[in-house]
């Protein structure tokens, strides 16, 4: 009896996985996220000049997510969660991104709630990131990037609430 129940459960799980994995035709699958491009984009893949559409939410090195979404080409339905991202190159003096940890070479200057990045009823889910340049700059958080040291801490409404603690720093080049 137990063997029959186990076999039945295992068959059910296997069948569910087979259905979930068979949703996207083989030609739609992307093994290397850097090879995926949005329809209509030029073939500048692999350079930091083109937007990428990827299944999953972790953009490849050199890119940041600027939108999370649900895509039928990335698997079976995604009610209540996201399964894909639009990724933009990490270029320019500043940019908007989903998530609150800026990529290397950039620091957060504002945390915000963006519907493009999923739900955020009680927390921030996006940031404005600026390049680490100049002799000093202000950043959200109390840790300065490599090559800079904190000279002061303060409360910034751009970085979220701070009724009992400081949430920002002035960073100076060392």
Please describe the structure with a list of short key phrases separated by commas or semicolons.
signal, flat, 174 residues, 1 helix, three-stranded antiparallel beta sheet, single chain, TNFR-Cys domain-containing protein
Rg (CA only): 21 Å
Terminal CA distance reads 71 Å
Mean pLDDT: 76
Tally the beta strands.
Answer: 9
| Helix count from the secondary structure assignment | 1
Shape: flat
**Quaternary class:** single chain
Kindly summarize this structure in a few lines:
The protein has about 170 residues and is mostly beta strands. The chain has one helix at about 1-20; strands at about 50-55, 65-70, 85-90, 95-100, 105-110, 125-130, 135-140, 150-155, 170-174.
Structure description:
The chain is mainly β. The protein has a domain at 31-91. The protein is built from one helix and nine strands. It has one helix spanning 2-21, and strands at residues 52-55, 63-69, 84-89, 94-98, 106-112, 126-131, 136-140, 148-154, 168-173. The strands form three sheets. It has a three-stranded antiparallel beta sheet with strand order 1-3-2, with no helix packed on it. It has a three-stranded antiparallel beta sheet with strand order 4-6-5, with no helix packed on it. Strands 7-9-8 form a three-stranded antiparallel beta sheet, with no helix packed on it. The radius of gyration is 21 Å and the shape is flat. The protein starts with a helix and ends with a strand. The model is unreliable at 1-48 (pLDDT under 50).
């Amino acid at each position: 009896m137990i063997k029959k129940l186990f076999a039945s459960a295992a068959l059910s799980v296997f069948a569910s996985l087979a259905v979930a994995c068979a949703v996207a035709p083989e030609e739609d699958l992307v093994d290397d996220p850097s090879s995926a491009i949005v329809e209509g984009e030029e073939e500048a893949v692999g350079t930091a000049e083109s937007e990428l559409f990827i299944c999953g939410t972790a953009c490849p090195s050199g890119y940041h997510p600027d939108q999370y979404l649900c895509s039928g080409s990335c698997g079976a339905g995604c009610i209540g969660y996201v399964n894909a991202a639009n990724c933009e190159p990490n270029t320019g003096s500043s940019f908007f991104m989903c998530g609150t940890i800026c990529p290397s070479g950039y620091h957060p200057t504002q945390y915000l709630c963006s519907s493009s990045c999923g739900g955020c009823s009680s927390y921030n889910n996006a940031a404005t990131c600026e390049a680490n340049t100049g002799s000093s700059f202000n950043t959200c958080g109390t840790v300065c990037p490599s090559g800079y040291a904190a000279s002061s801490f303060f409360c910034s409404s751009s970085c979220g609430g701070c009724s009992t603690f400081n949430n920002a720093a002035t960073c100076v080049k060392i």
